[in-house]
Design brief:
heterodimer, A: 3 helices, 31% helix, B: Rossmann fold, 5 helices, binds magnesium ion
């Protein structure tokens, strides 16, 4: 088998981006009861979202990389209240918000993994990690190719990012 | 009737428990991973188990395999709630001893129907 690492194209293929966008729409429509408005995907590091709640999941297999979910604190609180069926006035705790965003990231990345599966090619997927803070930038930890999918949820901006770090040739 | 809900996400446990309460089932115990799930089963009998797959420490498949190897736990109905829904995933889950399957994300109707179906066994 001839390795093709030297000329590997790490750019996420358009069908991958569309699949990830569909999965994000499905998670929000089904679990949060919200229709998201999708914006034009952005390639590379052109835009780093300024968001305070970030969920990350790694996947590995014939392709490896990350699915990253970004929300502002206000958007993350709204999502948490809806998932937990809390009163609008009830303020979810920081732990509740972190867990809810972790599970949203898990559902998006997990259904993406399922939709990308083909016979004999099933990616492994990690447990979500969630980072919360004020006004931090996520700096790319990997050399992968990045595509950022912006969404609007009512007055809130959300982002889902696909980072592809490896590609093995399939013959 | 006692239910056991096993999921590393407290959000997902709450969503499932809220559904069980709406269906009139108040007796629910919780676990955050498979190992804790085994502890709950050891503490006292449960009548139906709803479990996640992707969890730290002990995942849902390892949990069900351990459960099925325990005395008197071969028949307890198990409903798996997961995003892992590729053909190979479902085969692996059924082989481990899962009785029914809910794919995340799910509507409230879907999880209600699956709970009813697994209880009717
Ligand atoms: Mg999980």
């Amino acid at each position: 088998m001839a390795p093709s690492a030297t000329c590997a194209d790490l750019r996420p293929a358009l069908p991958m981006i569309e699949t990830l966008r569909d999965c994000t729409h499905a998670v929000f429509a089904t679990m949060v009861g919200t229709t998201l408005e999708a914006r034009t995907p952005l390639g590379g590091d052109a835009l780093r979202p300024r968001c305070n709640v970030v969920g990350t999941i790694g996947f590995g297999g014939s392709r490896s990389g990350l699915v990253v979910f970004y929300a502002t604190v206000e958007a993350a609180r709204h999502i948490t209240q809806t998932l937990l069926a809390l009163e609008t006035a009830a303020d979810p705790s920081q732990a509740e918000v972190a867990d809810a965003i972790g599970e949203i990231t898990n559902m998006i990345a997990g259904s993406f993994r399922t939709r990308m599966a083909t016979d004999g090619d099933l990616w492994a997927i990690s447990i979500p990690t969630v980072t919360m803070g004020s006004d931090f930038y996520i700096t790319p930890l990997t050399d992968g190719r990045r595509t950022l999918l912006p969404f609007r949820m009512q007055d809130h901006e959300l982002f889902v990012e696909l980072v592809i770090t490896t590609r093995t040739s399939r013959t | 009737m006692r239910f056991l809900v096993v999921d590393d996400s407290s959000t997902m446990r709450r969503i499932i428990i809220n559904t069980l309460h709406k269906l009139g089932h108040q007796d629910v115990v919780e676990a955050a991973n498979g190992r804790e799930g085994i502890d709950r089963v050891t503490e006292g009998p449960v009548d139906l188990i709803i479990t996640d797959w992707n969890m730290p420490e002990m995942n849902g498949i390892e949990f069900i395999r351990s459960l099925r190897a325990m005395n008197g736990q071969q028949q307890v109905p198990v409903l798996m709630v997961t995003t892992n829904a590729a053909k190979d995933d479902i085969v692996e889950a059924l082989r481990a001893g899962v009785n029914n399957y809910v794919v995340k994300p799910f509507t409230p109707d879907t999880i209600r129907e699956k709970i009813d179906a697994v209880m009717a066994r």
